[in-house]
Write a structure and sequence with these properties.
The structure holds 2 protein chains of 2 kinds. Chain A is α+β, with helices and mostly antiparallel strands. Chain A has 12 helices and 18 strands. In chain A, the strands form 4 sheets. An 8-stranded antiparallel sheet of chain A has the order 14-11-13-12-16-17-15-18, sandwiched between helices. In chain A, a hairpin with a 4-residue loop joins strand 16 and strand 17. The longest helix of chain A is centred in the last third of the chain and has 14 residues. Chain A is globular and about 65 Å long. Chain A starts with a strand and ends in a 7-residue tail after the last helix. In chain B, the strands form 5 sheets. Chain B has a 7-stranded antiparallel sheet, with helices on both faces. Chain B has a 5-stranded antiparallel sheet with strand order 7-8-12-10-11. In chain B, a hairpin with a 4-residue loop joins strand 19 and strand 20. In chain B, helix 12 runs antiparallel to helix 13. The longest helix of chain B is centred in the last third of the chain and has 18 residues. Chain B is globular. Classes of the chains: A alpha+beta, B alpha+beta. Chains A and B meet through strand 8, helix 6, strand 10, helix 8 and helix 12 of A and strand 11, helix 7, helix 8, helix 10 and helix 15 of B.
Amino acid sequence: MASATVVSPSSGAELAAALAGAGTTVRIRGGGSKLSWAPEAPAGLELSTERLDEIVEHNVGDLTAVLQAGVPLARAQAQFAEAGQMLALDPPDRGATIGGVVVANDSGPLRTRYGGARDLVVGMRVALADGTVAKSGGKVIKNVAGYDLAKLFVGSFGRLGAILEISVRLHPLPPATASAVGRSADPDALSRAALALSHARIEQMGLDVRWEDGAGAVLSRFGGLAAVAQAEAAQRLLGDAEVVEDDDALWEAQRDAQRSPAGMVVKVSALQTDLPALIRIARDHGALLVGRPGLGLFWLRLDAGDPSPLLSALRQRFTAVVLDHPAGVEPGPHEPSGTGARMLAGRVKERFDPNHKLL
Amino acid sequence: MDDRRVSVGAGAAWGEGPRPQTEGEAEREPRDLGPLVEELRAAVGPEHVFTHEHQLRTYESDGLLQYAVTPGAVVLPDSTAGVQAVVRACHRAGAPFVARGAGSGLSGGALPVEDGVLISLSRMRRIVEVDLPNQRVVVEPGVTNIAVSQAVAPDHFYPPDPSSQIVCTIGGNVAENSGGAHCFKYGFTTNYVTGLELVLPDGELVQLGGKELDPSGPDMLGAFVGSEGTLGVATRIWLRVVPKPETVRTLVAFFGSPVQAGEVVSQIVSGGIVPGAIEMMDNLSIRAAEDYSRAGYPTDAGAALVVELDGSEAECETRFEQVVEICEGADSDSIRVARDEAEREVIWKARRAAFAAMGRIAPNYYVQDSVIPRTRLAEVLGRIDELGREYGLQVANVFHAGDGNLHPLVCYDGSNPGEAERAEECAGMIVKACVDAGGSITGEHGVGVDKKRYMPEMFSDADLGAFQRLRCAFDPEQRSNPGKVMPAPRLCGEVPGPYRRHPLEQAGLAERF
């Protein structure tokens, strides 16, 4: 790939002007941790958000914040944590910016309780391909004025415009956490346990599953003043399980499994009841599986070996999107699978970027 | 569009308040939609097409009775194919159309278009599938909100709960992105819709999402929810349902003033507590509601604060004690804790009665739906008081305190000349005060026709232009619910060419998105 000119504007207006003035194809980049997820394309100009790194507002009393797109998520979290708050988005970090996490629709274990980027973003300011700067939504958590254009940019991979600023809803950091962990080497027993938890009248902060090297675990996390008591209730539900109070490492490992520096990671959108089938696919292909059984979102990771049998097994039944990948494997797809939805996405693209400036 | 303002009529919630006086309009000529009417009859059967003036009148307003427009025809399809046939016929005839659910909306979002077609989805009320193992329910748009929770009882529920939930429909909820008392903790309609089958304004059928989360590509599903019927008609909706909380604890605490109660709300939230619901009423609404509901609220209280916590038993108990302590620490005049479901119901009865009971204070009222950052509450309430005095009108306040969603009710008597106009102006000033404080013109009722004039308070011309791009992608002829949301009509420019391969695509270097 021919190297593109990289420009790092120091303000949203500057980025918009650079975009408007570009006489070539443009790629927007944030922290660069997920660039390989989009198909390689020869952009003439790369616009980096690295200098758009200001935490514009942190409204502690309102539990909201406004972040420039290039703010590293970890830095924002550190500031929120000082006030006992968090942005409930916890994908693997690796230097990711808030803008990158949102355009790639990346997420972590907290999604079970708090939703994904689409559920936490309450407003957005964007620069369109022609340099128009427009905002939608606002800074308050409840707002139905105008179209929710911010949603359109979630998962857009930068092809509809450049995100300049994102308003988010924050949540209180739980004072304590505790997890119940059940283990089984039987895919069906493991899936039954996961489904029992996702259907139980308990309030979980996270519900994850893991399958690795022929054995699996279900992790059920609770936050609050009575975190341990809640985890014990989940333990009783699981029967044979342990309660872990110092549980950060457990969940860090879940997040970490969503990346493979040298291998392949495939994100699968499925149903809760598909879990046994997915575990079997992981087992048969020597892959590591993590995911959110209550949401039906799973990540299969294969660090070495030929990834194509795993990929084709998944694609026979599921919507499977390649994220991290070795040479020779195409990332994506990042376009809708249905004919009608694809047609509509094309019509949206024509209106937002008629000259196909953004790749 | 010719919005006919009706000078009398209460801005009441669904089914409440007097019908507007429309005598002056009674002798209108039947509209001539030409051959379109025959096509509509062929599409859904002649018995499901209304063209008589008295039938059309039934549909002239939604829940916001200040606006009334008689449509050219009303059709009641009972299937996706029926909706598609109707929309296609409209497309061929170049006729505008408006989809309508229960008509309980409070922003004139389902206000018909004169000489256009009103598509009532009231016959599409089938629950298509209840898939409890996957926690999904698939419904047609005319299914009521409450029916979804009923379909998954007793262990699950559908969280968005607008106060009109026994009549309002999921199709309408999708159009408006409806919230409700519990959305501070649980979120809005948009957080629970996982799939939509749509009939686009040109009659194309498109499915966005489905039972699974995260369909690839830009989140068009999310952009459609809350688009107020301007992007097409949803004919099938996939919804996520969740387990019911293990326990629910409810109290009502009374305070000297809304500002004092607002301080309590801030303390609760900054203490890391996320209540299932937290609702406030001021003295005027307490008096009106008490007169109506007999829930035993003290009528001399300056403010009533309903706090409901739900979740795990262990967590809820501890947190509830904290809430009681906070209320006591803030010199609450009295605190009533519900000991059982019946007592909880009594506490909620007064809150739910607040809108309907306003008729006891004034013959008419104008309800607003603005949102403010919660920390600006004291300041904005002060400004609302000032405005009430300035305009010589009583303003009652009922609000979702957790998310700062105010429902100021500007009371007036429409039989006094000029008072309705004064009330409307006062309400407009209240909206402006909320936007100036960093808020929004609408938290859950939608823009519709009623608030479109306030849109420029919140959005610049460039912002509105970006909205228009989405509109044009879905509805280039702008025939789906025209005249709503946007403050002024805008054209859709031509897109360059039908399909033009980018040079990079031709060279095989890039894929089309």
